[in-house]
Design brief:
- The protein has 16 helices and eleven strands.
- It is of the alpha+beta class and about 400 residues long.
- It has three domains: about 160 residues, no CATH class; about 90 residues, no CATH class; about 120 residues, no CATH class.
- A hairpin with a 2-residue loop joins strand 8 and strand 9.
Length: about 400
């Protein structure tokens, strides 16, 4: 099956002319890269297209051809990318060398070209545009993958090119998978745990983690969503002293997670009318965090020093629980195990247990010496919560 992504994407962009310069035209025949038919003088000579760094010669649709079609050349050219961005400053795309079409993910559809971020992709995948359309999602921004993509002609079964992998998505089946995946992330599990079906929730001292004889609710949800069936060794033990707490931050460093939780709760509790998000807000957050950690001797003192910086009158209980319900205990019961993914609906959290259990000096050292990393953890969690941002904001505003 020859990929038609370049040709269809180019046509959806309005078929911008990108003819070869004099003496650089290729012969008539199939496009070396995508296999589409090229008329005499319309394509580019192969050697004018290939760069010394191009290594995917085995992916050529017509290896014996000496010409490349205009769509493939246009969507593989840094010059065409700069011209395209220059004509559309409102899109906010960067075009400095060596950026090009490969540097962004793309949605091509009728009268639509968008380079979505993570939250944007969620909307497109759940509600694709009117066919035909081309979906290209890059992970590295370093590989030309548009020419590998297939155009989609059905909103319910469509193609997504993810870097070098081509994925066929059934929209009806995909929606509940995504819902379960997001629910597990919001419960505090990491992406790696959800992908592999390996859920490392903590237990009381001496209790075992989920083993071959115990099936958790979260694990079952992962199975139903097709997210894996693996389990951890049932001999693994919880940390001494009680439960391990999952705070919703993508790190195995408990000190960093604790520090991030304090910054996150204070940020969520800020007076948004007085402390607005500006282009340099996160550099301010880093400075405020480092300054508070430098002066504080305890974590409560750190919070007291940080609150006025964010115009936070008091910490909102809803902010402290938004996106995660605190501890995720895994208790061995007989021959099985029960994983409590969330606390009761009306139970609020105040981080008392978190602070009491923490190595306060170690957390303060982390906040002061690795401020940028702690703030990045906070920003990563906020980014993952963007799909439910309005719900979290309501939770904070409804605090008693």
């Amino acid at each position: 099956m020859n990929a038609d992504g370049s040709r269809v994407a180019w046509e959806l962009l309005g078929a911008p002319a990108w003819p070869p310069a004099a003496g650089k035209a290729g012969p008539a025949g199939p496009c070396w890269l995508c296999g589409s038919v090229v008329a005499e003088g319309e394509g580019w000579r192969l050697k004018e297209f290939l760069s010394p760094t191009f290594t995917n010669h085995t992916l050529a649709a017509a290896p014996s051809s000496g010409t490349v079609c205009q769509p493939c050349v246009y969507l593989g050219s840094g010059d065409s990318w700069r011209a395209y961005c220059g004509a559309r400053p409102g899109m906010g795309l960067k075009s400095v060398h060596p950026l090009s079409w490969r540097s962004y993910s793309h949605v091509f559809a009728t009268w639509v070209h968008e380079c979505p971020n993570r939250a944007g992709w969620r909307g497109w995948l759940l509600d694709p545009p009117r066919p035909p359309f081309v979906f290209v999602l890059t992970e590295t921004g370093k590989k030309h993958v548009i020419y590998r993509a297939l155009a989609s002609y059905d909103r319910d079964r469509y193609w997504l090119q993810v870097e070098e992998d081509r994925v066929l998505i059934d929209r009806v089946l995909f929606a509940p998978v995504l819902e379960r995946f997001e629910a597990l992330l919001m419960a505090g599990f990491t992406r790696e745990e959800v992908r592999g079906g390996v859920f490392a929730g903590a237990a009381a001292e001496g209790a075992t983690r989920v083993g071959a004889t115990g099936t958790s609710d979260a694990h079952r949800a992962g199975d139903e969503a097709g997210l894996g069936t693996g389990v951890r060794d049932s001999g693994a033990r919880a940390k001494e002293g009680g439960q391990r707490v999952i705070y919703g931050f993508d790190t195995e460093d408990e000190n960093a997670a604790t520090g991030a939780l304090l910054v996150y709760a204070t940020w969520r509790s800020r007076d948004t009318a007085r402390y607005r998000v500006t282009p340099d807000v996160w550099s301010q957050v880093e400075r405020f965090t480092k300054a508070a950690a430098k002066r504080a001797r305890t974590l409560p003192a750190f919070v007291e020093a940080l609150k006025p910086r964010f115009y936070a009158g008091t910490l909102s209980p809803r902010a402290m629980e938004a996106g995660v319900k605190g501890p995720v205990p895994l208790l061995a019961l007989g021959s099985g195990a029960v994983l409590e993914v969330a606390a009761p609906e009306d139970q609020r959290e105040f981080m008392v247990g978190v602070i009491e259990r923490a190595d306060q000096r170690a957390v303060l050292r982390k906040l002061y010496a690795e401020t940028a990393w702690v703030v990045l953890l906070v920003r990563d969690r906020l980014e993952r919560e963007r799909p439910v941002e309005s719900r979290i904001a309501r939770m904070v505003n409804e605090e008693e």
